[in-house]
Protein 1
Amino acid sequence: MANNKRYWTGLDDLHQTEAFRDFQSQEFPQHKSLDESLSNESLTTANTGRRDFLKFMGFSLAAATLAACETPVVKSIPYTNKPADVTPGVANHYASTFYNGYDYCNVFVKTREGRPIFINNNRKTGVGHANARVNSSVLGLYDSARLLGPRLNGTETTWESIDQYVAAGLKGSGRKVFLTNTILSPSFQRTIQRFCEANGAEHVMVDAISHGALRLAAKKHSGKNVFPSYEFKEATMVASVGADFLGTWGDSAYYEDEWVKTRLPELENMSRLHVFESVMSLTGTNSDHRTMVKPSEQGKVLVAMHELLSQGTQKQFSTGPLAAAIEKAVSDLKKAGRKSLVVSGVNDVEAQLLVADMNRLLGAEGTTVEYRSNQLFQGDDRAFNTLVKDMNEGKVGALLMFDVNPAYNALDKEAFRKGLSNVNTTVYMGGFADETGSRCEALAPTPHWLESWNDLSIDGERVDLVQPTIQPLFKTRPAGESLMAWSQFESDWYTEIRRTFKSDYTSDQMYSDVQWSSCLHDGYYMAKGTKASPVVNPARDRKALQQAKETLLAVKSDSQFELDLYVKMCIGAGEQAGNPMLQETPDPVTKVTWDNYVTMARTDMEAMGLNTYIAQRDKASVVKVTANGKSIELPAFMQPGQAPGTVGIALGYGRGDGGEAIGRAAFQTEENGEYVMTDEGLPMPIGGNVYGFAQMVNDVPRYAAYNVSIEPTGEEYPLAATQIHNTVMDRGSVVKETTLSAFKRESDKPKGLASWNRNHTLTVHEDVNGDGVIDASDDKKTSAFDMWKSHPVEGVGHRWGMTVDLSTCTGCSACVTACHIENNVPVVGKDEVRRHRDMHWLRIDRYYASDWSQEKGEEEGVGVIASYTKMEDPSANPQTVHMPMMCQHCNHAPCETVCPVAATTHSNEGLNQMTYNRCIGTRYCANNCPYKVRRFNWFNYQGYSKFQHSNPAQDSLTRMVLNPDVTVRARGVIEKCSMCIQMIQSSKLEAKKQGVPLTDDMVSCACSDACPTNAISFGDLNDEKSVVSKRSKNNRSYHALEEIGVQPNIFYMTKVRNVDESQA
Amino acid sequence: MQREATIREPLILGHKTYKDITDDVVGPIMGPAPLGWKIMITISSLIAVYGVGCILYLLGTGIGTWGLNKTVDWAWDITNFVWWVGIGHAGTLISAVLLLFRQKWRMAINRSAEAMTIFAVIMAAIFPGIHMGRIWVSYWVLPLPNQFGSLWVNFNSPLLWDVFAISTYFSVSLVFWYIGLIPDFATIRDRMTKPLPKKIYSILAFGWSGRAKNWTRFEEVSLVLAGIATPLVFSVHSIVSMDFATSVIPGWHTTIFPPYFVSGAVFSGFAMVLTLLLIMRKAMNLENYIHVKHVEYMNIVIIVTGSIVGVAYLTELFISWYSGVEYESYAFINRFSGPYSWAYWMMMSCNVISPQLFWFKKIRRSLIATFALSIVVNIGMWFERYVIIVTSLHRDYLPSSWGEFHATNIDIGIFIGTIGIFLTLFLAYARFFPVLALNELKTILKSSGESYKNEQAK
């Protein structure tokens, strides 16, 4: 049986067919070869069936999809060898110096895991304070528009080829010019000199915003070509004619806190400030007496002041408020004598000559002003103009530029651009391929200041050091090193800086290293040279003065309007136009973000029928401003305090008119976040460039135009302001202010009893004081009424609090940007700000005084409702108050009770805490906040396309600036000021590690750190010795909205104005 | 047994018999859907789909798609919420309070009024949900045991009280409504010939057999539920009003709010009942059951509650002046003279002035006038909430933060959308549910004495 069993391979086998036997007989079955198969005709013509096609496609699609579905792997690589100074989670601080040709100050740079993330003030060894422009500049380091490496004719190249190109260019004929901004580095000055000698080149300096007249006048006045050194802290009386010295004029980062040192009302001699200006400047808002004058009158005001000082009478302004204001200012100045100071922002040699002479007449030379060795603002506008002329005439063979942008900010930028195309060899050294850079053949990128070494000195005595805080991110080379390469000098930039240092100190390398380290730690060293001696009271050139007066008086303006070109606090000269944080920080005066506009007086706007009210849906009217043959169309903005008959336009806008890569935030965006495009298909710059409206007068640009015509275009344009309401509506418990004389009368009264800071009381129907009658003397303090169980924070452990002195707050907004950066606050762009959705945790409320009040209404028989309407309008020339407003950390917080999920709670250290993870986003807390400081995440700011060009967190490089200690908030949660709890926490840990009690100097907040004037202080209210606990007990301190009984931990201090009431 | 004076207008007109009632109510359910209904449900469901689309866009993109901002953090969302909750009140009032007061006229309207309540509360519940920044964690408002640590809800928050109040209200209303529906479902079940609907109705009828025991229990449960529901009529809107009353915002912080809100709710609820029923009686030939007498009664309720609301408005104004509080008085001056005064005067004219027309018998017995005014009242009540929420918030304490609110298309779309969803649900109800409490109605039909009574009247 078993033998019969047979296995067959198929039916063919079973039936033993012919074909099968054939097949079986062959050892190697004769199939067609591959070639044969492929050459088969029918195969190429064969139709792949529809089903097959679908199958294949389906498979490929599925395969591709599956392949793409792999989870992205994000690798975090730990240090193999931990760098000595880098401990994850622990910040390092480095002393450094900021200088960009405009702002100058010493800073501390905070780095985390090797990334610089915050620019802080250097209060220990530094001079000057970081303003908003300086502390926001950290974003520039991580700007993805920066140049990645050297470029030649638009293509990436190597440094060698750049060097060859430059070497060849320098051999050519014609002028060889090295054009820079004001160079303050001794090492760089030496390098430039060496370069010029080696190549027969010249060095020309030009400033973005010229202060040339001050230098020229100082030379005429004192014989020294220096910038006058102003010492505001010595002055008890300051008169400023058009100088915004607190914000944007001169060495403002130094002047601001120096001036504020004289502004405490508790001082024996609080200083007074008289301001004469056209546009409401930051300085104007802080003045005690402000007078509106037209730009053409500013020179005449100086002449009148000078005549009053030298002759006792003046003929320029016979009567009227202007004459009175001038007389008052001069009599005040005379009274203060050598402790007075006159400054003027009029960039006119004649005007500055009078200013210098007035300071001499007052005896102020040697106390508040000196002519010694100040090297700021060396820009030579005449040399620059000659250069442009030569460029256009083809006389310039090579033009090398460093950190200047004349293709943007030259008065005649078209001439410069045209001239540049005539130059054979053009080299640009800077961070971006900006208006100038993109027009140059060779781009030699320089490192960001946070990546580089430098030494800087204003007076030649104190040398401030700049040290790198991160390895250069891109293929950059310091300008000094490039110059050395181009002058065949074998060295590197760091060695040069050390060489400069060595020449001042010991040449012994070992000692030098030790000394260098300690100087680097402090951020500066003192040069060991002979000190320049100041020129005091040089001989007067009466003829020159007389001539100056005549020239100033000869100024004529018969047009209806005059134009004042001013500089804005945040945008400055426009270098950082691509910085979203600066664009979004509201202007301290107008509170407008992301835009340039024409400031106008209400009367003028009404006469022309322009919109004076700008809000969410109320757009600004566009006007066409024509002056000096140029015209520009910009929206008009009603500015209280604007001199009637004048308009103001800020410089620093209109960057990137050729769509240059200067940063993503530099261009206008649509509501959906895409760029607005020009007709040429380029992204539309923000605002307009008005440098061209300035005119060269006697070799310096005059930032004003006297014959201006303005016509409405009938178009409208939306402006985005963070504050649309201007006055405080007579609400006495929001802002408290008084005059110095009123303050002095009751300066020793205990807190709550002085007339200018009275406790809020409520009437009760009981005889509290037991005198048998129920009257006003029985009133109880608001805080006596309390239905709540108090949080046990008084006297137990820490109780964090803050005091904000309205007297010393100038509104400069350094705290706003500092808070923004420290706390990773999203930047939301213009359209969202217009919808009142700015995210600032800390804002500065700016209130203008109104002519009207309920009291006045009662006196004049005007009804309550009509009075309220009148109170909404600010005065024509209002007094202004700046009030920083952040979470008040109420001990009886209204937000805490209403949250259904207890996402916001009170800490046992007195903080009102926000738990983002727990928040479900009902926004009830934000509604119930009397201070309206809570901010809601309306969108996913980190991912939603609307914010692609505005929010730094949407750029993979700029994201590096985010503070790792602070959560980036998700969509749909509330956020608000945390009093920088991350900083409190790290201070507590530090104290714990050191085993010492936490003292006042160990804790701070981003805003209190950043405040140049110490108006904001932060600390432990339970610590008797702390500044905050002392200030909170001061009789000027009060709680905003005290009567609603929320018991904040933030105290404000009454603003005191040094107003002359005898004549007011 | 119902005794009634002969001179009184009968509650059911037209010599109806018991069978007529059943035919009138069940007939439309048995028959094919009329064309008008098809058109109406198509339109309303299209609106509903648009609304759902807007809601999805909102959930996908963020609350920023609404016009809210840092100053006005609530606007249309909570306005719509309060408006819908308010509308719901009429149903409960009619079915529970009028039941306890033995107002037999309620029987013709209570079923639809309750249906309206259920649907309105569903619409209302949408808004607190979608107005949350993170709706995906909305369950955190429930006091659930959890693993987040010792996290618990904040019992101090009026918003949490809202959660409890609304959910209780919704469940009690639903049960009450359903209990009432059971005998009527049974009637439909008994008549239905198509197998699937018959099956569904028999499930819905809960095995109702119509025995005396069933009826006793039915009556008892109705009474008990009416007892439970009655306080809810007052509590729900009181608690909703506390969202505002317990805050510190001038214009919100007002002790008058609970009674003022409750009467406002009843006011708007009756207006909505009128709007719906005036259409329904015409479309479904219910003129004999819901007639001028019912309309007149409801209009009287509207005059009373409308006047209470009017007095409340004036009291608020008076107190804001009398208190001498600067912020409070400004808040109210701003209401009637500020940028949103148009909304205030809209509210005043719709809510206070227009219902006073019902003092004229002619007007309150005119169906067309009633219909027009009921819509006016609903518009007015929407504006009342808008005024309270938006005008109080947009200018509160610090003038620096004063702002504006402007609604976006999404704001409007979602509101219109909820009206669409509501109408869709109501139309579905009108098609598949007994729109009159037919078994209850039969208790007030005096078939035997009716012809006698009519003759006596002659």
Note: Residues 158-191 of chain B form the longest helix (34 residues).
Protein 2
Amino acid sequence: MAEELISFASKQDMLAKSKQFWNPDKTQFWIDSGVPLVIDRREAYFIYDVEGKRLIDVHLNGGTYNLGHRNPEVAAAVTAAMQRFDIGNHHFPSLARTALAEALVSSAPEGLAKVMYGSGGGEAIDIALKSARHATQKRGIVSVAKAYHGHTGLAVATGDERFATLFLADRPEEFTHVPFNDTDAMEAALKARDVAAVIMETIPATYGFPLPAPGYLADVKKLCERYGALYIADEVQTGLMRTGELWAISKHGVNPDILVSGKGISGGMYPVSVVLATEAAAGWLTEDGFAHMSTFGGAELGCVAALKTLEITTRPEVRSMVHYIAAVFTEGLARIQGQYPDWFTGIRQDGLVMGLEFGHPQGAKFVMKRLYENGVWAIFSTLDPRVLQYKPGILLTPALCEELLERTEVAIGKARDDVAKGGRR
Amino acid sequence: MTESPISVSELLTDPAGVPRARAMLQRAEWAARAFARYDKPGVDAIVRAAAEAGAAKAREYAEWAVRETGFGVAEHKVLKNIACSTGIADFYAGHDYVTPRIDAEAKIVEVPRPAGVVLALTPSTNPVATVFFKCLLALMTRSVVVVSPHPLAKEVCADAARTLAGAAVRAGAPDGVIQVVDEPSVPLIDALMTDERTSVIVATGGVPVVRAAYSSGTPAIGVGPGNVPVLVDATADLGQAARRIVDSKSFDNSILCTNESVLIVPEQAAATLLRHLKQAGAYLLAPDERDRISELLFPGGRFDIRFVGKDASWIAAEAGLRVPNRTRVLLAPFDLVVPEEPLAHEKLCPVLGLVRVPTARRGIDAARAVLRLSGRGHSAAIHSADPQLIMEYGAAVEVLRVAVNVGNSLGSAGLETNLAPTMTIGTGFFGRSSVAENLHPSHLVQWTRLAYNRDPAEPFGDFTGMTPWQTPAGPVPMYPVASNQRGDRLASASAGGQAYHPARSEPNGLGTDAGALREQIRRLILEELSQLAGG
């Protein structure tokens, strides 16, 4: 059946049609980058190209596949759910949505009391920003320079111009960007008391995971309180145990007013995104519950997937494993860095959120290519291509960690030679 | 309106808990990887801490076990719990399963390699003592344990395992070094046994459990049941023998698998021995009383587990018999050791079969007959001053330990002999087991042998004092502190400085400041944790 629907004469034929009917620029970009990947089957932390090449996935689509591809437990839960549920009717109270909301609230930082649903991260960010505007009756939104929160109407305006101006979607009059890790700039942006919310990824992913300076996020939260703005923690990439705690923001002692999760929340099996908010930040739900709606937001199959994902992720065994895995990479990457200190110039790590810095403006693209050749799929940071996003799964085995480190070591060495020879990716 | 609960949980839960059990094994795999790199002082500190934590709760767990299972004698369980905690730690204090051994003569170096992930199946009869025992053996050899307790004793076993785990981790053991299954079930145990992350199954329990362990495809150390014959000949000190047998048979109400099952005595010594047995607290059942006890214990020919570990007077009362208050053992005489005689089979309660034989030599035949019914490979006892007879007995009975002039309960278990003290009796090939000895730490460690060229021209290396392991200084694993919060000095010197240490031959990188740096890391972590707790 699938073969009848999805059938091409060859990989070349498929790529040609991809350019013709889908996205010519993106399709060509990967070919030019030395990553002519067309993912076919996938399992656990492996993806397989249509030609059979096996890759260890340390991109994980930003944590979407935290639990591995087609995690059998999540797949079983969704399969069981499909015998009874579908997307559901978004107007009515629902078993699955309510159960997930309760589970999320009980696992969340103190104060978060209500859950709103979207179908993707951008939509969830828009819901968060709209909620903050309603709660504060202000319009201003502050985010950090080189931020990334998605591509929907409001979310794209919080982010880097790279994704906004092309679509005439930037809104400088309402959306202020301040430098990351600069408390003074943040205060200056908030002082006029016209800001509804500060939105921060706990570690900015697309910018290559620069780490918040010690105390920075807590200071931002204090400034929010002082100037009447809400703090929105974008935990789409940093949440779900990636830093060794369920929500990375709790490692910074911050109880956000709003917390957003997406990607990995539903185990990579059925899209759903969530916004957790305090009672005060979610006031519109009491005032006019029909004010925001989304046919696919909180789709019931996605909620079941998310319930299972949350149950797996919050097992004490899993938290323990994440700490073990993080320690292995701390040690292993430091060892590799010791061999190439002039090339592998920095390691940004908080648990399994890692950005690897290289001494060339496009360094991560060289490494990405060599990793691909060596059976690893990791992506450069769009907004800082010196930095490779390195995001191993939270259920990795010791054996696969060792294999991954060995492959990484070789690829980093080869990429250094490429750069030294003046090669262009 | 429906009254029944509305739920989506059946979509989410596996009633057998199998996925959770697999998660435990994966965590165990990580812990085993870390623990395999600890050195002897680190291991010693962990073993000692765990043993002392267990011993401190010996009484609490003894009473809890009796309450939960409904059998045994709390006072005796206290003794076993201590014997299997600090007792075991003391017994093996001088042993080393961690440091490489050098045989310069043979030009061989032996490097110890722990089993890895030990799946410990523990019984209801000696629940806590067996949990202690298996956990400590694993800790001594740097293996990690997943305990799957018998369902009848699951609560006390889970608590006991967690007590040891907590103490071990506080003493520096890796997180997850001891884990326990809270809700054991057949599918769950099957999943644990057949999972390739389980390195070895150490199974103590009924025959089905042990056979299942051996059938799982995973290396297993399983032990079979006992059915202990005890022969007393005329050369023995009959008073001593009687006291020892009654003490042993009444110890924890016969719940140890090493308890005596059938007493075999030549006519010549019978009258005197019986007199002493009565003095020691045994009650000789009259034939009609014997029949009532037999029918009570073996309805339809099978032992009724209701009587496991119950005391003698309670059993007598159940049979409607009046016996003296001080009765500790019921003596049940019968004529012939044959399969259809219920009293010749294993009895985990203080009812002791009694068979009179014409001579001690005929007694050996009777003992062999007892073991034909069950208990092959397990244990037997003899009370005698005649080495010739003792040797003949030992060479004839199909068991792998014979306790001589000592009660078998604690004798064959190694608590009152110089056998390895154990809660797990290897029954060897006789008993369809791979292990012939009392389970001891060596069974959980294997050795990589570095074997040099035998040619004298090829010199042997100098390995003196070398150890490839080093116990990490901080918690294992290290809490994942963000890299920009670890301090500059650590970041620049972090090669090998986190959870694991490099092999001895590599420069450590932390140099002389290692202690100070680790202290700094610990402080950062503590600050972070207190912040979390406060927030």
Note: Residues 488-514, 524-535 of chain B have pLDDT under 50 and may be disordered.
